[in-house]
């Protein structure tokens, strides 16, 4: 009698357990359709307006004055590893300049520099126009940006590949937003030299690896 | 006459304590103690320079002393003074421990019979070290032992460089000898230098010489601000414990903004100059001034800093470790002669050691400002496991009075403190906790309870080991002894299972409050669950009569293996949200430990006839009788 | 029948099952190094059989790679333990005061096992990043992906048509719900490398429309990563089929997100945005991040506090709520729980972990029962032990 009571109690218990157990297999996902409030499409890049930090020496000439804090921030950004393309010279890096390579041929020479800053340093358009200014090109608008800038991937992260032909001098560059910092990899020099080395520049970009405190 | 053995042991113990607590005497007129107590901020915590000196030396050398080329032994703080203020001398001291220099791939480094190398020994190999370092795997968990050695060497050299330049700018002997002058001239130069910079930016004529000197200083101090490891300049009072202090470089840079140079910077500069020029009085006076200034600015913190230095000197855990050895010795002797007196002596020394051990734990709580939190990292978990086991052992000894409780307590206490000592090699054991783990309530409850569960499992396992050893080897082990030991094991395992279960559940609740998942199958959680399951296996095996004393003792020894896996093994793996410490060399120790336990389990499987004890022989004859009866 | 009951209620079975459980947990933990926590959970703990293979990284792999150890999986063991426990209670245990402690502990345990099963089946975890000053009305999974077609033609709302990527099997055709389009999957890569095509290198992209063509993007399949800190770039080539025929083949990937211009599908006078993204769950409320604080210990990167001050704006204004979310202190709202998970963009974006688990209270109940039971059980034992010693 004790047994039978226990039995029915157990049955009441076991049955739901068995049903639950059989539910285990049923995990199918189904297509759905639903309405959502209107969304505005923002370009939500992982950067916000860089309001902080000292104003940059805007010309971007090689003799940029390094102010306290920039170098420190550069150190915090982590290190960048790469493979130097054949025929290019690897020059010492210093301060905010994380790498400096050079290539020369019969048409002239070109310098490749890698720099990094916290935030997005004004945004892609501002940087592209700054570079355009360096090679005597007029600034462009947001709408024209797609003509000179294409998305690419560096070290499996989204980046922007920029081509600026300035006639005498040209720039090939990549802008890589990475964990709160923006890395600028820029090849600048005589147009012929620069474009002759474009595939090597792309090889270089593919060889880039990042390591840093953030990871 | 009868009391002699007792008195002998007690006196010896007291002598040990006194010698341990004796203040260190320095063979110099410089006021080393006062210097050792100057507070600095490192790793988010305010601590005396003494702690930095000891921790840094431990990281490099794995020990707390330095032997100079002349043969003198230096204490950590003396070494630190040379490192920061007479770097050219410190560079000759052998502080970097490299066990197998041949394996590093740095030709010419290895010297016959030498395990410690100086900075100067390593200097010619810097380029090679940097090159090797750039090639190793960036993911620490994936590095081979060799890669980890290179990484450690690189990190140590960097730390050396950074600590060296914590009190003054980077420079050669001449510069260091003139620090105060340099600071003064820099201060005077600032307004003129800023003016020259402004003129240059505006395209006007400017003093190029002055500007270049000014920029040189600026660059230098900028480099210093990134290098200097210690933050020695506190903000002006009133100050919160978590306010940012500044290192020397940052302070000097702030002078450019027009702030006056902090007296702490010039104070350290004066200290350096005085030390280098052997001006004892000047040094002692400056140290005193600095100390008084700190006291005036931060009346609250100074007491804690002072206490921490005393704590460092006293080394209570080392002391209790020695006392545990004494206890074990006393108990072993008591099993041969003078049982009554020596077991009393052992028990009293155990209590003494336990009190010192407890003091150490409480002192750490006071220094870190976290009350009721016994465990914050792997190091403190080891100390606490020992404490818990000793506590259990003392209780066992009081109840059973057979010396076993005391012996077990001493053994586990000693072993865990050795483990803790090895874990302290990585730096500051009072390090700050990450936010998600930083909740005093859960640290005090979940972590404490689970660690007590670990203690109890180890204790039960050690009792199991004793069972096997005595049963197989000792002639005096009778059925009653076996029964008593068996019930001790049972009692402690019940306690262990209870605490492990409660601790694991508390952990689940903590996880649910933190990230919404009661159980995440994370390696550390799995390890804790395995301990609970092990306890459950033990209990159910006993209740079901599946195992008797021998089997249960073996299960208890298994418990040791499972607990070691849960405590350390899970840390070796490279996944999950938990990760208290990096313990790669611990892998071999763990495997060794597991093998040793398996040996004992294997020993226990010997047929009863091989058991020399009365208990074993009794079992053997019963077995033979059963076989005889069955075959009839 | 009796023999069966005897078998299922035996203590020996309990011990055997517990030993298997220990084995399962141990080998599962070892495999977490390879597969990460989440995948190992599926393989070992949410299965009926698990097989452990000798890992490549371990010494002696060449000699021991044949070593595969099968063992009962979590569901099988859990189920058997449940049956064993219930059977034992049915046959052997009598409900007395002396045994009440054990009853409570076991009942609490049963409740815990059931709650874990419910969690496996019903719980849903996702992440919600919100910018400071911004609002978010959806959270997204970090593992599951969906293919979406979004119709933004209506001025009052957007219509989302979503197909989970688990249904995108190459060659299969899936109807797009509430529309007359169909999707045929040409290729599906759970993880891929996406980049611009190198000039001169051969590329066999089947895409005929969209970003793949305009920006010359190609995709190469990659091995799925189980690393806790990496995401898998789910990628697919899908053909959109309208009633009048195929509209073309698009390359969609969860890395082609808001930074790129939207890929459009046009059919007649209708148009949709097509994208592959992490599965989103939309809510009838918006979470606004008022302020995010990230405090570190001075001179270190070690955080000692993250906290987010949020304001929740519900469509039904009576349900608006203000809250402070920080470590160990979540917000429970509308059957969801919001935890402070992480942050980004140099402390300007806070990331919340959003958990929907209807059974979240069960573990607490079970803990209560088990605690009570243990106190009673061990209390009785301890008192008995003391009595014996004093006599």
Walk me through this protein's architecture.
With 215 residues, chain A is α+β, with helices and mostly antiparallel strands. Chain A has 6 helices and 10 strands, in the order αβαββββααββββααβ. In chain B, the strands form 3 sheets. A two-stranded antiparallel ribbon of chain B has the order 1-2. Chain B is mainly α and 632 residues long. The model of chain B is unreliable at 576-583 (pLDDT under 50). Chain B contains 25 helices and 6 strands. In chain B, helix 14 (280-297) packs across helix 15 (299-314). Chain C has 3 domains: 2-122 and 362-390, no CATH class; 125-135 and 282-356, no CATH class; 140-280, no CATH class. Chain C has 7 helices and 18 strands. The mean pLDDT of chain C is 85. At the A-C interface, helix 1, strand 1 and strand 6 of A face helix 4, helix 5, strand 4, strand 5 and strand 8 of C.
Blueprint (SSEs and pairs):
The complex is a heterotrimer of chains A (215), B (632) and C (391).
Chain A: H1 2-23, E1 32-37, H2 70-76, E2 79-81, E3 89-91, E4 97-105, E5 108-118, H3 124-134, H4 145-148, E6 149-154, E7 157-166, E8 169-178, E9 181-190, H5 191-196, H6 198-207, E10 209-211
Chain B: H1 4-21, H2 32-36, E1 39-42, E2 45-48, H3 49-61, E3 66-67, E4 73-74, H4 76-85, H5 87-90, E5 94-97, E6 116-118, H6 119-122, H7 126-135, H8 145-164, H9 173-177, H10 179-201, H11 208-227, H12 248-256, H13 263-276, H14 280-297, H15 299-314, H16 316-334, H17 339-368, H18 378-400, H19 404-423, H20 440-473, H21 479-515, H22 523-543, H23 549-572, H24 586-604, H25 614-631
Antiparallel strand pairs in B: 1-2, 3-4, 5-6
Chain C: H1 2-9, H2 11-45, E1 49-53, H3 61-64, E2 68-72, H4 74-91, H5 97-122, E3 124-131, E4 135-151, E5 157-164, E6 173-175, E7 182-189, E8 192-196, H6 211-214, E9 217-221, E10 235-242, E11 245-253, E12 263-267, E13 270-296, E14 303-314, E15 321-326, E16 331-333, E17 336-344, E18 349-356, H7 362-390
Antiparallel strand pairs in C: 1-2, 3-18, 4-5, 4-13, 6-7, 7-10, 8-9, 10-11, 12-13, 13-14, 14-15, 16-17, 17-18
Helix pairs in contact in C: 1-4, 2-4, 4-5, 5-7
